[in-house]
Amino acid sequence: MSEPKGRGAAWTEERGTSDEGRRRLESGPEASEHKKLVVLVSGEGSNLQALIDACREEAYGAQVVAVGADRGTINALARAERSGLPSFVLRLADYPAREDWDAALARTCAGYQPDLIVLAGFMKLVGKPFLAAFGGHCVNTHPALLPSFPGPHAVRDALAHGVKVTGCTVFLVDDGVDAGPIVAQASVPVADDDDEATLHERIKVAERVLLVGTVGRMVRDGWSVRGRKVRIGS
Ligand code: GRF
Hints:
Order of helices and strands: EHHEHEHEHEHEHEEHEE
Bound molecules: 5-O-phosphono-beta-D-ribofuranosylamine
Helix content: 25-40%
Radius of gyration: 18 Å
Strand order of the largest sheet: 1-4-3-2-5-6-7-8
CATH class of the largest domain: Alpha Beta
């Protein structure tokens, strides 16, 4: 596997864990029973924040062990830092080929031994090396009712189509674009005077609740997949 362009040995930019974060990660037998989440982000990080907040509750059953990003100066990383969580940044542009970036992402995530990877506003497609490591154990959240309006402009596309109801979807990541088996969905009505920003904000309120609830149920109860059908619990 080749090293990324121009970064030498320091190919991942990993940030340390604060004392508070280290204490949380190493604090006693009950914490070690919690399932480990690695959360990947690209922007604001409100979904990440909702997960971090949920993980403060003992009964939630999970802990965020690391936050990864594909870009450096984003609010999501500041949120991770404020919560004392380790983070890493892997920029696609620092790698000779997409597959190298993807493999580095898989390696770095694997280092945290996650039970589940959560793509929370992560604006990159993952590829073969990543899916070979984490396929079936990686969920994404999307601001539309899939299979309608996949892709990066879901809210704009739904508005342009004139739908009266849209929403959000948590799904298992596969090699398609927002195409994997659906785990959970929530609906959001479209108002006559909505623009992309107002509608997306309302969807994000529902999305945070859906993501936190779904991830919690998955880590506590397990899940199975038959064809396209995902079932949480036994
Ligand atoms: C979410 O609506 C997500 O579905 C979309 O981008 C938004 C990310 O929000 N891909 P945040 O960064 O979690 O606030």
